[in-house]
Structure formats: C-alpha cells, structure tokens
Design brief:
By secondary structure, the chain is α/β, with parallel strands linked by helices. It folds into 2 domains: 197 residues, 3-Layer(aba) Sandwich (Rossmann fold); 35 residues, no CATH class. The chain is built from 8 helices and 7 strands; from the N terminus they run βαβαβαβαβαβαααβ. A 7-stranded parallel beta sheet has the order 3-2-1-4-5-6-7, sandwiched between helices. Strand 4, helix 4 and strand 5 form a beta-alpha-beta unit.
Length: 259
C-alpha cells in the first residue's frame, strides 16, 4: 500500500534506538524526510547511518534532551514545520510508592507528559493551517492496565493520553489526527532492562526471568520493533485521516479488556 506520505517531513523523538528508531526507519522507508533525536551524539550518528544504509534516506540528527526547554527549542529550530510528529521518551524505572518523592514525580511528568505536550502545542497550529498533520504518541500498555511498580510512568502517560484525546476532537476537522500507540513486551533495550530487574528482584536467571516476562503475552512471543513501527507508519498515512483520538495496543493480543 502506498501510504501517501512521500516527501512529508517527520520528526521522531527519542529515536536513536528502540521503538523511536524503528519508527524513524519505517517512515524513511515510506519516503519521508526524517528528523531523529537523542542525547548521545555517537549513538544518534550510528542510528542515522543505519537508517541511511537501509532506506537510502539520510535523516537529520539533532542532539537534544527533550526534558529541557533548551533541548525542545533546538529540536524545533531544526524542524519547525513537520507534517508528522512522533513523540517518545524513555520511561522511569519501576519502583516503590514509598520511594517516589516530589522530585521523582516532577521528573516523570517532565519526561513522559510535558515534553510531548509542549512539542504538540508548538507544532499543531501549523499542521492545522497546512491542513495535514499526524501526531502519534508512544505511550505504554500500562495506561490501560496500570501496575503500581510502574506508577510514575502510568500516571504521567495517562495525563498525556487525556490531553491528546481532548485536542484530537478539535483538530481532526483540519485533517490533523492524534493517536497513541501502547506497546507491551517489544524486544528493545527497555524489555531487557525490565527482565534484568525482574531477575534481580526474584533471584532468577536471565532465561527464567525472560520466561516469566513472556507468560502474560497471548501471542507467546515478544513483539518486534518493526511490527510496532509498521502500525505507527499507517497511523501517519494519508489513509488514516478518519482515525483519531485512539489508543492502539501493540501487545500480541494480551489486553483482556473490551475497551
């Protein structure tokens, strides 16, 4: 299927690795002019090289910390008028309620709610004026299936979800859609980190911990980043103009609820 986005500019946040990089790869393969972002210059340059080698399209790489005003300003200066915005950022580590002080909550909100909201605020007006925009927020399955150890991530991403839903109702009339992708158990550095944490906490070997992580997955396998990225690319397509305000779970069919 031709997604109708050849020549569109796509800004993908936190895209030097993991799901962000996979989404950048997929959008570049569809013919988009891609802007990628990360805090580690060496890793970002490596990602840019991989994307260029596989897709034939060299992305613009911007070293910036999304959690800071300076970082967001640098990103917007490099890409002031994208047609596509994919927000993404690393989540906080799992923890215990009694350990989350005021500073921990503020850091989570900055990373997983406000960084995305502030970028959307800066860019959505231009998208509406140009009458094309696709915004995809990479959140988490925990938004719909909260677990207390991931409370910092769940709470902040749920705030982003609420904001996105409210705004989507306003801007879809101008062909600007806003949707959320909710990953669960995808083969990334984050999954490896969570597996190591489980192994340490439960005193398990890594293979045992990996088997435990797999148990809730209905598909009986972990997801692949490219599968997640394909869903992102479709939500960014011309054909997806009638899909907005939605939370699409990419979880191997594991969510047990109806809605």
């Amino acid at each position: 299927m031709d997604l109708g986005i050849v020549g569109r500019t796509a800004l993908i946040c936190a895209s030097s690795r993991g799901l962000g990089k996979a989404c950048a790869m997929a959008l570049a393969a569809e013919g988009c002019d891609v802007v990628i972002n990360g805090r580690d210059a060496e890793r970002l340059e490596q990602a840019a090289g991989e994307i260029s080698e596989i897709t034939g399209r060299r992305p613009l790489a911007v070293v910036a910390d999304l959690c800071t005003e300076t970082g967001r300003a640098a990103l917007l200066a490099a890409c002031p008028a994208p047609d596509i915005l994919v927000t993404n950022n690393g989540g906080p580590a799992p923890g215990r309620l009694e350990d989350w002080d005021h500073a921990a909550w503020l850091a989570a909100l900055e990373a997983n709610m406000l960084s995305a909201i502030l970028l959307i605020q800066s860019l959505v007006g231009g998208m509406r004026q140009r009458r094309f925009g696709r915004i995809v927020n990479i959140t988490s399955a925990m938004v719909k299936s909260p677990k207390l150890p991931l409370g910092l991530s769940t709470a902040s991403r749920a705030g982003l979800t609420a904001f996105a839903k409210a705004l989507s109702n306003e801007c879809v009339r101008d062909n600007v859609t806003i949707n959320n992708l909710l990953p669960e158990r995808i083969e990334t550095d984050r999954l490896r980190y969570m597996t190591e944490q489980l192994a340490r906490h439960r005193k398990l070997g890594l293979e045992e911990a990996r088997a435990e992580m797999l148990k809730p997955v209905a598909a009986r396998r972990f997801g692949r980043p490219e599968e997640f990225a394909a869903a992102c690319a479709f939500l960014c397509s011309a054909q997806a103009s009638y899909i907005s305000g939605q939370n699409l779970q990419v979880d191997g069919g594991s969510y047990e609820g109806l809605i």
